[in-house]
């Protein structure tokens, strides 16, 4: 096969979502197959670099801090160590293996630009220093390419959060001027849905800059074909069951949530969020325990949240809709992923998606980087069988043959009740029928029909001096040896009750299955499932289930939420390679069904041809 490789370099590469996607990109044109060759993937986090190579299967990561000295001091709040030095254009050139990359990709940190960060913090010097990496990283790269390679990348792509258009307006102005200065046609938009570009199971609206160097690529770059969004159920249905760390790896364990959080999750209807808790008739709900069949839930009135919260807080998503965007703060209290906590104070700037529950038949919301209380990481899982046994609470007819009497012949397990017709119900029934008279009150009138069924012929006689047998209604201590099990072991005849301490305290953490009112298990998404919604591979190149090494589960969620979805970058890389192939073939213009992504910036005047 005749393969033509185009070089690529990645700045702020993280754990390699964009790199892995570009490595899968390909375009066939004029008998050649065009692919990307990765020169380097730069990031300041050594753990991210380690996992980048683990996921991509190539040792292309370069650990490099791109802060200037003032940025370092502003971000860390202290001076750098003595062995620290600012990265120069020469350092970047060495990382590029002394080559000008055809494609340069940047995904600078977005914490200071995200709407998840309060405005006062975003405006602080600390986060402004972090935001400046968007400009500084690009400047260093262009300087390195121009000074040591005599050229610049043919295509530059920068990815970030949509809020950069407001919080980073000044930075974007500098970037646009810089790109224009070097001869780039530039597209700047904040409405790119990477879910539609990659055909993902989530909505992921992002900001993208795509710059085409007109001298090297005079032809258009067309937009990738938009694909229908998958549902969250489409993504999760083929995965191992949650908690299966053998099939899904260590990231597939279920988060240990507080008991009260599990109960509230069960009350959020699929497709709803925390505001639906205010609509629940909680006074008529109780928590019950049903062995093998799951439990119901209780509506907790202690939340006291008004209607001022943002949408998607505690939202339960539908399985037949696209998920909301997977973000770097993938906690239930920041996205559509879990239930409302009564200790959570209400405020006007609460993040959307907090405690949202996702339906199994709809796309997931955006995967973010934080824990269950911060994003849409709960799902209404339909795989829990909640059907009762046949004949549960069954009432048998008097004039038909009884059902089989079996050992579990309790009313909640079989047809253990009967409709008894022997107590007549008719108007005009005599008073005093079956009446029990008190020994210390005058008797009712003695009538001619002296029978208990016709008059007050019963008396509560205190002289019998009897008492129920020992252990009747007995409740046994959990920490003591049990009483003897007898043949008539029932709460009315023996110590057949126990003080069971296993109903957790409100703040006790664990994993419980609570069957929601809709018959499904409203549970948090595992970190492994969030990675699959971000289109990471189910298995690493070495054959192990997808996992990240050297970091906590919380940090793994941050890495996953901050990543560019692999399949979205693959599709974007396909159109970039096609444009490169057309440029190599000197094709100045080609028709496409897709809209133009990056058009020429020159204003052309119309001329009349006679």
Automatic annotation (TrEMBL):
This is Site-specific DNA-cytosine methylase. GO terms for biological process: methylation. It comes from Paenibacillus hunanensis. GO terms for molecular function: methyltransferase activity. Gene3D superfamilies: DNA Methylase, subunit A, domain 2, Vaccinia Virus protein VP39. Keywords: Methyltransferase, Restriction system, Transferase. The keyword Membrane does not apply. InterPro entries: C5_MeTfrase, SAM-dependent_MTases_sf. It comes from the Bacteria. SUPFAM superfamilies: S-adenosyl-L-methionine-dependent methyltransferases (SSF53335).
């Amino acid at each position: 096969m005749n393969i033509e490789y185009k070089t690529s370099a990645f700045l702020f590469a993280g754990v390699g979502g964009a790199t892995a996607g570009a490595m899968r990109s390909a375009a066939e044109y004029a008998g050649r197959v065009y692919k990307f060759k990765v020169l380097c993937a730069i990031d300041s986090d050594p753990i991210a670099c380690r996992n980048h190579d683990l996921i991509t299967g190539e040792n292309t990561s370069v650990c490099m801090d791109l802060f200037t000295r003032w940025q370092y001091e502003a971000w860390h709040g202290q001076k750098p160590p003595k062995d620290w030095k600012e990265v120069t254009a020469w350092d970047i050139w060495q990382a590029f293996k002394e080559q000008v990359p055809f494609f340069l990709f940047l995904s600078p940190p977005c914490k200071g630009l995200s709407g998840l960060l309060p405005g006062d913090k975003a405006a602080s010097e600390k986060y402004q220093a972090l935001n400046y990496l968007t400009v500084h990283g690009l400047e260093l790269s262009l300087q390195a390419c121009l000074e040591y390679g005599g050229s610049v990348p043919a295509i530059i792509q920068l990815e970030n959060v949509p809020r950069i258009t407001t919080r980073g307006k000044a930075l974007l102005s500098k970037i646009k001027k810089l790109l224009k200065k070097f001869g780039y046609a530039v597209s700047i938009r904040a409405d790119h849905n990477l879910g539609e570009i990659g055909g993902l199971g989530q909505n992921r609206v992002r900001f993208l800059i795509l710059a085409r160097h007109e001298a090297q690529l005079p032809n258009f770059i067309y937009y990738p074909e938009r694909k229908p969004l998958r549902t969250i159920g489409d993504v999760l249905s083929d995965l191992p069951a949650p908690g299966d760390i053998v099939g899904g790896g260590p990231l597939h364990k279920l988060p240990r949530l507080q008991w009260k959080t599990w109960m509230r999750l069960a009350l959020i209807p699929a497709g709803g969020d925390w505001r639906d808790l205010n609509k629940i008739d909680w006074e008529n709900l109780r928590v019950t325990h049903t062995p093998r069949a799951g439990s119901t839930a209780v509506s907790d009135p202690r939340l006291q949240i008004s209607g001022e919260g943002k949408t998607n807080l505690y939202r339960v998503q539908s399985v037949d809709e696209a998920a909301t965007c997977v973000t770097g703060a993938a906690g239930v209290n920041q996205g559509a992923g879990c239930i409302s906590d009564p200790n959570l104070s209400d405020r006007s700037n609460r993040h959307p998606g907090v405690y949202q529950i996702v339906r199994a038949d709809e796309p997931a919301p955006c995967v973010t980087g934080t824990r269950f209380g911060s994003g849409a990481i709960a799902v209404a899982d339909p795989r829990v069988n909640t059907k009762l046994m046949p004949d549960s609470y069954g009432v048998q007819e008097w004039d038909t043959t009884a059902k089989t009497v079996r050992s579990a012949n309790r009313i909640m397990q079989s047809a253990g009740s009967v409709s008894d017709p022997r107590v007549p119900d008719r108007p005009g029934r005599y008073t005093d029928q079956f009446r029990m008279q008190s020994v210390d009150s005058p008797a009712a009138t003695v009538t001619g029909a002296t029978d208990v069924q016709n008059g007050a012929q019963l008396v509560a006689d205190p002289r019998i001096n009897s008492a129920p047998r020992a252990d009747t209604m007995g409740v046994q201590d959990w920490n003591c040896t049990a009483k003897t099990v007898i043949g008539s072991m029932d709460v009315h005849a023996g110590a057949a009750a126990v003080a069971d301490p296993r109903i957790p305290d409100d703040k006790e953490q664990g994993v419980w299955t609570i069957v929601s009112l809709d018959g499904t298990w409203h549970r948090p998404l595992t970190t492994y499932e969030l990675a699959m919604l971000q289109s990471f591979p189910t298995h690493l190149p070495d054959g192990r289930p997808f996992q990240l090494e050297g970091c906590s589960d919380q940090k793994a969620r941050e890495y996953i939420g901050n990543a560019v979805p692999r399949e979205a970058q693959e599709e974007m890389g396909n159109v970039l390679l096609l444009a490169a192939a057309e440029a190599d073939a000197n094709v100045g213009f080609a028709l496409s069904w897709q809209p133009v992504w990056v058009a020429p910036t020159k204003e052309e005047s119309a001329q009349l041809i006679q």
